[in-house]
Design goal:
With about 300 residues, this protein is α/β, with parallel strands linked by helices. It has helices spanning about 5-10, 30-35, 75-85, 100-105, 135-140, 155-160, 165-170, 185-195, 205-215, 235-245, 245-255, 265-275, 285-305, and strands at about 50, 70-75, 90-95, 115-120, 130, 150-155, 175, 200, 220, 230. The mean pLDDT is about 95.
Length: about 300
């Protein structure tokens, strides 16, 4: 992508509808969830859906919302934990990742003309910086096998806006991005991008690793290229310690560590579990839950209005 294309795909997006749970709309979730559940675009989604990448923490945490009747999670173990600890607040249910549903529905496959690798670089977020060793990253990708070349870099939209891609671009590397997380076409953009590559490389454990594996794309995780994490957010260091000692996170590192040329059975099984591939919540049940939660939210708002 050239700079004009990167700026266009990463430009700010604002939701043109009422949003109560941002995780139910971001990363293209809102658009695809509505298709999955036969739910119109003009109605708000009033059920909580987990962030696009299921967390790699072992334990679930509470959701602080005044209105909460249903909480959807990709992972069955999260559903079980939620219903054991927070069932009185809201019912926990499983769901298939909208990424996976979209891929299956559109019969998306890696292009027959795919070549080289896409390097998903560990991205920043609001209040969190990632300090990469660029020289070490370049040396690593220059040493990958010839069939994994050329290597393009995929940057998060915030990092494009910050100009963090420029040093790599100046070295002649192709820079791409799936775009702003609020773009309703994020999922389509993501697959239109990655199907052009044979392999995925990364220095982070995240959703990209799961989605690529689910597509049948071998993923190589280079732990030695992990960045230094810096943040002054409250309890950030404690959260990172909890993540880095979680069995789920450690299992992912072990499964994908090193240079991989194929997707093995254990990687597929892990990815299927993480993405809710075999969720028992079918489209009709999902539809019923969304319409029911909409009605419940309507009465919730009425109750607030008349009890001020």
């Amino acid at each position: 992508m050239n700079n004009k294309e990167l700026i266009e795909v990463c430009k700010p997006y604002s939701f043109n509808k009422a949003v109560y749970f941002h995780s139910s709309e971001q990363y293209g979730f809102g658009k695809i969830l509505r298709k999955m559940a036969f739910y119109p675009s003009f109605l708000p989604i009033c059920a909580h859906f987990e962030h696009s990448s299921p967390p790699f923490f072992d334990e679930i945490w509470d959701i602080e919302k005044k209105f909460l009747t249903v909480a959807f999670f990709h992972r069955d173990d999260y559903v079980a934990q939620w219903n054991d600890r927070f069932k009185e607040k809201a019912k926990g249910m499983s769901f298939m990742s909208p990424f996976v549903w979209y891929k299956k529905n559109k019969k998306i496959k890696i292009s027959k003309t795919a070549k080289g690798s896409l390097f998903f670089i560990h991205h920043t977020r609001e209040g969190v910086d990632r300090l990469h060793d660029q020289n070490r990253i370049i040396k690593k990708i220059e040493g990958v096998d010839e069939d994994q070349k050329p290597v393009s870099f995929c940057f998060y939209y915030l990092d494009i806006q910050k100009g963090l891609h420029l040093p790599y671009q100046e070295l002649g590397y192709n820079i791409v991005s799936a775009g702003n997380s609020n773009n309703p076409n994020f999922i389509e953009n993501f697959y239109n991008l990655i199907i052009n590559y044979k392999y995925a490389l990364t220095n982070s454990i995240g959703g990209h690793l799961l989605f690529a594996t689910n597509l049948g794309m071998p993923v190589s995780y280079f732990e030695e290229l992990e960045p230094i994490h810096k943040s002054e957010l409250h309890r950030f260091n404690q959260a990172m310690l909890t993540l880095h000692t979680s069995k789920t996170y450690l299992d992912a590192k072990k499964l994908f560590k090193g240079n991989n040329k194929e997707v093995n059975v254990k990687q597929k099984e892990f990815t299927d579990r993480m993405l809710g591939v075999f969720s028992k919540t079918n489209r009709f049940r999902l539809s019923i839950v969304l319409y029911k939660s909409l009605i419940q939210y309507f009465f919730f708002k009425i109750n607030i209005k008349y009890n001020k």
